[in-house]
């Protein structure tokens, strides 16, 4: 792992809200706005942008935690901008805070954690256990 970043550095990810982002469960559509799940996935991707620049070819990132405070709706056709701010790198764990906005309106905020591991180690950890 190579870390060219300092706490306070940022990465930006932009996401267009589509119908695929709406909140749906087995019983159908909940509401026609961007779901918390979809925002969480975008927030994790924004933090992963740091991981992509840090990991070596024989390494991969894996999520360790995610918090999301969903504050306001994002509607179909709106562009959500997620700004991830590097908080710390602790023993190969990349910790970011983020804010998701549509224009000046805060949609969500929270934190993400992703750990960079050797692909070989990750494959062993994620391998199905046999009885």
From TrEMBL:
CDD domains tied to this protein: hot_dog (cd03440)
Fluoroacetyl-CoA-specific thioesterase-like domain sequence ranges: 17-120
Domain of life: Bacteria
Name recorded for this polypeptide: Fluoroacetyl-CoA-specific thioesterase-like domain-containing protein
InterPro entries: FlK (IPR025540), FlK-like_dom (IPR054485), HotDog_dom_sf (IPR029069)
């Amino acid at each position: 792992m190579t870390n060219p970043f300092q706490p306070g550095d940022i990465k930006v990810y932009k996401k267009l809200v589509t119908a695929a982002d709406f909140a749906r469960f087995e019983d159908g559509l909940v509401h026609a706005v961007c779901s918390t799940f979809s925002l969480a996935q975008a927030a994790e991707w924004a933090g992963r942008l740091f991981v992509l620049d840090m990991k070596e070819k024989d390494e991969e990132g894996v999520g360790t935690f995610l918090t999301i405070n969903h504050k306001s709706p994002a509607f179909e056709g709106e562009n959500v901008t997620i700004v991830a701010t590097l908080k710390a790198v602790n023993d190969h764990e990349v910790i970011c805070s983020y804010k998701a906005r549509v224009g000046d309106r805060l949609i969500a905020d929270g934190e993400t954690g992703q750990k960079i591991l050797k692909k070989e180690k990750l494959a062993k950890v994620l391998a199905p256990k046999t009885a």
